[in-house]
Design goal:
single chain; mainly alpha; 2 domains
């Protein structure tokens, strides 16, 4: 290979009179900072304007020595060009001679995404919501409520509806995020994760950090918009499947049960301390980078001060100034949110679960008559709940063994 370029893998042997090899990079100017990264591997970093300018000179073909001279003439100080190149190498921006410069491959479903998230798509959503409101105003019984969940006395069927049955709708929510991201040409991925004691589906959109802020809101809110459409369709389905006497059919009852669960998922998005869709909207509006991580460190330091334990002076030194400013008050909301979740678990979830389990086990140990169908129903119900606990425990064990790593900002949504 030609020796006219500097190797990325030998920092100590870099020459300042030969250009460096860089991967294909994307830049997004955001005032005093510039987001830079590789779209082919979704690796990004936030650089100051002067650092991004220096990187752009290297990308244009200047040698490290020439780029350092440009930096000194522009900003009036000498830059540590070797240290800068080491940082670029650590970020994975440099490549060795012979290594191909990978460009991001075209994403699939981009054309479909542009059709779905278009003015016509927005018009369909608005029409469905208006029709839904009209139907509910005309027939208040079609307004989803908790009583709609109890359309059968079989606890197994209820469990399947409230747990397994809504998985396709949750996946639809996350698929909407992924599709909206692909509309912008971003690589998106679906995965499963945990938020406190909730198991959630997650859409990863790390490339969103390279998109102008005004274009980020549709991918972030696509899941909630889809939930609104699902809610409207389910209510309308319950209306059109009613019996001649106006009573709900079984299909309509099931539709309203799913509609109520969809309402709960929409309400859950306001638990932004669990890093839901609205959390990322807030982060984008406030211009933060890693608000959740910084707020946690602020809380940890406050706890250390309260307990008179030593707190590292540089614990927040690496935090972004905007994150630090917002975390001063957001950390209290984070604490309130965690406390509320624990209180709901203790005061609401555990007593309700205890009552249900007591009812189930009474079928096994009670002295009254017990039918074979009731016993089978109870056995399946217990097995389904045990399966949920096993899945949650598996995620907790995985999280304990997983090493924390850097993540891009605004890159994940959860439901």
């Amino acid at each position: 290979m030609s020796s006219s370029t500097t190797r990325a893998s030998d920092p100590g042997q870099r020459a300042h009179d030969r250009p460096v090899l860089l991967h294909s990079l994307v830049f997004l100017d955001e005032g005093e900072e510039v987001t830079v990264g590789r779209a082919d591997v979704d690796g990004y970093a936030v650089l100051p304007v002067e650092g991004a300018g220096l990187l752009r000179r290297l990308e244009a073909g200047l040698t490290p020595g020439e780029a350092a001279d440009w930096y000194e003439s522009t900003y009036g100080e000498r830059v540590d060009i070797d240290g800068f190149l080491d940082d670029l190498d650590e970020l994975g921006f440099l490549r060795d001679p012979g290594e191909a410069a990978h460009s991001p491959a075209p994403v699939r479903w981009e054309r479909l995404a542009r059709m779905v998230f278009s003015h016509a798509g927005a018009g369909c959503l608005a029409a469905a919501l208006i029709a839904c409101v009209i139907v509910m105003l005309r027939s208040p019984s079609l307004v989803p409520g908790y009583h709609d969940l109890f359309f059968t006395r079989s606890m197994t069927v209820l469990e399947l509806v409230t747990f397994l049955g809504q998985f396709p709708l949750i996946l639809l929510h996350e698929t909407a995020h992924a599709l909206a991201g692909r509309r912008l040409g971003l690589r998106t991925r679906l995965s499963v994760d945990r938020r406190m004691y909730y198991v959630v589906f997650v859409t990863e959109m790390d490339g969103l950090v390279t998109v102008p802020r005004r274009k980020r809101y549709v991918p972030m809110l696509a899941g909630m918009l889809t939930d609104l459409l699902v809610l409207a369709v389910l209510v309308l389905a319950a209306d059109v499947t009613r019996r001649p006497d106006g009573a709900l059919s079984l299909a309509g009852s099931v539709a309203l049960a799913f509609a109520y669960l969809t309402l709960l998922r929409l309400a859950w998005q306001f638990f932004f301390y669990l890093q839901t869709d609205l959390y990322y909207v807030i982060v984008t509006v406030l211009g933060c980078v890693d608000l959740q991580g910084t707020a946690r460190r602020v809380l940890r330091d406050r706890l250390g001060w309260a307990l008179r334990r030593p707190v590292p002076r540089d614990d927040l030194a690496s935090a972004h100034p905007r994150d630090l400013a917002v975390a001063r008050w957001y950390s209290w909301l984070l604490l309130v949110g965690w406390t509320a979740s624990i209180a709901i678990l203790i005061a609401g979830v555990i007593p309700a679960a205890t009552h249900v389990l007591a009812t189930v086990f009474d079928r096994f140990a009670g002295s009254g008559p017990r039918s074979a169908s009731d016993l089978a129903d109870s056995i399946v119900f217990v097995l389904l709940n045990l399966a949920q606990l096993v899945v949650l425990a598996a995620f907790m064990l995985r999280d304990r063994s997983r090493r924390p790593g850097p993540r891009s900002r605004h890159g994940r949504t959860a439901n």
